[in-house]
Specification:
The chain is an alpha/beta fold. The protein contains twelve helices and eight strands. The protein has helices at 17-32, 50-57, 83-89, 99-105, 109-121, 134-138, 142-153, 159-164, 183-201, 203-208, 222-226, 243-255, and strands at residues 6-10, 40-44, 62-66, 93-96, 125-130, 166-169, 210-214, 233-236. The protein binds 2-phosphoglycolic acid (PGA).
Length: 259
């Protein structure tokens, strides 16, 4: 089963619209130089820059993601943004359940499940984030936490919907810390996730679903991670803010993919 790799930039709360435009123009030119091989390169800017990013990305092969979505269609939900609004802004993807959303803004697995369903209904590809904290890892609970996040977060999704979404395994202790998971740790977690997807949604679903690694991915460590058979790309925070650094991650990640 060949899965199209995904290299995604999660800017978090960085960059103005003006800065977004400059970055997207530069990235578009760089991505055009990639020869052969299918890849999805995705950038997730803050909400106010979605339209600008999507317009700049047109015809470049770069995709655009929102960093969050609210699950209701519309209503009195001050400060929230619906999936249809994101779609109309020109994005094709949305990050759901990032650990910062879970930790700082109270996103539960139940909220993640509703957000995933809202995203899928609006024909957005979700990038569903899961991962354990340091405390959970040290207590030997990594697999249990991943199981709960998948079981409750993906509740009610059809196998074909799970096959089409993107999972991002992001150990919380590796995010923004400069301490990435070792290839062995990532291999174990990714294998566990794919096995569970197979048990709960079927072998074919598990074979199709892309699982990205996230957490302190840098140009010099991406190859060791994307070389793993169950790692289908990366979700990159800090090292994606500089376009040259992100493009190095794209090329380094692609070159290391198992043939
Ligand atoms: P990081 O963030 O690359 O800065 O660790 C990854 C993420 O939060 O998606």
């Amino acid at each position: 089963m060949t899965r199209v790799p995904v290299l995604a930039a999660n800017w978090k709360m960085f960059k103005t619209t003006h800065e977004t435009l400059a970055y997207m123009r530069e990235l578009g030119v760089l991505v055009k130089t990639l020869d052969g091989g299918e890849v999805e390169v995705v950038v997730a800017p803050p909400f106010p820059s979605l339209v600008t990013a999507a317009e700049a990305a047109r015809n470049t092969g770069v995709g655009v993601a929102a960093q969050n979505v609210y699950f209701e269609r519309e209503g009195a939900f001050t400060g929230e943004v619906s999936a249809a609004m994101i779609k109309e802004a020109g994005a094709g993807y949305v990050i759901v359940g990032h650990s910062e959303r879970r930790r700082l803004f109270g996103d539960t697995d139940q909220a993640v499940s509703r957000k995933l369903r809202a995203a899928i209904s609006a024909e957005l590809v979700p990038i569903a984030c899961i991962g354990e904290t340091l405390e959970e890892r040290e207590a030997g609970k990594t697999d249990d936490v991943l199981d709960r996040q998948i079981r409750d977060g993906f509740a009610g999704l059809a196998p074909a919907e799970v096959a089409a979404l993107i999972v991002a395994y992001e150990p919380v202790w590796a995010i923004g810390t400069g301490k990435n998971a070792t290839p062995a740790e990532a291999a174990d977690a990714h294998h566990h996730i794919r096995t569970r997807l197979g048990e709960w949604f079927g072998r074919e679903t598990a074979d199709q679903c892309r699982i990205l690694y996230g957490g302190s991915v840098k140009p010099d460590n991406v190859a060791a991670l994307t070389a793993l058979p169950d790692v289908d790309g990366a979700l990159v925070g800090g090292a994606s803010l500089d376009v040259a650094s992100f493009f190095k991650i794209v090329t380094g990640g692609l070159a290391a993919r198992p043939k």
